[in-house]
Q: What sequence folds into this?
C-alpha cells in the first residue's frame, strides 16, 4: 500500500528563554512566507509608540492581519463572492 506523504513548511517562534514556543505549519510555502512577514510586521509595529503610529495614519480598524472562513484562510485574489464576505470570521 502506498501512503502519500504530506509535505509541510513552517517555522517556530519561541520566547527568549525558549520555554514557550508556537509552531506554525503550512502546506504552501507562499503562505508560510506571508505569515512570517505578518508576524514580523506586528512585532515591529508593537514597538512603535502609539503617538507615532497615529502620526503615520495607522489605526487598528485599518490593519487587517488574517481572515478565516470555515477554518480556511481567505485570499483576496481568490475571487470569492460577496455573499461569503458578509459571514467571514475576521481576526486581528
A:
Amino acid at each position: 500500500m502506498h501512503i502519500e506523504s504530506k509535505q509541510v513548511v513552517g517555522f517556530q517562534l519561541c520566547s527568549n528563554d525558549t520555554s514557550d514556543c508556537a509552531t506554525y505549519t503550512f502546506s504552501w510555502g507562499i503562505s508560510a512566507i506571508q505569515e512570517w512577514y505578518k508576524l514580523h510586521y506586528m512585532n515591529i509595529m508593537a514597538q512603535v509608540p502609539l503617538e507615532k503610529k497615529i502620526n503615520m495614519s495607522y489605526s487598528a480598524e485599518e490593519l487587517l492581519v488574517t481572515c478565516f472562513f470555515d477554518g480556511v484562510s481567505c485570499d483576496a485574489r481568490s475571487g470569492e463572492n460577496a455573499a461569503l464576505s458578509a459571514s467571514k470570521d475576521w481576526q486581528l
